[in-house]
Amino acid sequence: MATVRSLLLTLALAWPLAAAADAATQAFAAGREAYGDGDFKAAAEQWQRAASMDHAEAEFRLGALYEEGKGVPQDMSRAADWYRRAAEHGSEQAQFNLAHMYAKGQGVEKSEAKAAQWYRRSAERGNPHAQYALGLIYYRGVGVERDLVEAYAWLTVAIHNFDPNMFRDNANEVRNAIDERMTDAQRQAAEQRLDEWAAARD
Question: What gap in Å lies between CA 40 and CA 68, rounded to an integer?
Fold first, then answer.
């Protein structure tokens, strides 16, 4: 009997969560449709509803609206706040955008160290632009201690994840420059990092 009561309690608690998730999904979809129709104000209103229920993609889209001034007044500080919320809820694109804002000092106080932290979180979730940025950061020693092994490894990951484009070309160029400066031990360490990266994704 106790098991039945426990199951019913679990279901009762789970029901509001499922309903909220459905409502957030519906509001997000309505916002996306409004955005596609060019009604940015309606999109912002719908995404605000979804974001109030911790919908990460809606939070990210709101950040973009505030950054671009579409449907809402342009406000870089509010853009950063929404990106942060989405980033903390796991949006790799929001993590990248927030990192970029820290790197440029847009909407937040400039901090190369915080930029590096958010680029890393986005890079670890598979964002090739963040992987590229992180490789450059370690190569230049900006916000982190300079580390050729980390730079080489992250640029290699980015190269594999990019489609043919100028970023991949530049990543190749920088990686080749790093390779010329590396010792054999550093190359082996970089290969080990890459093996660990691949293994973690299998």
Answer: 11
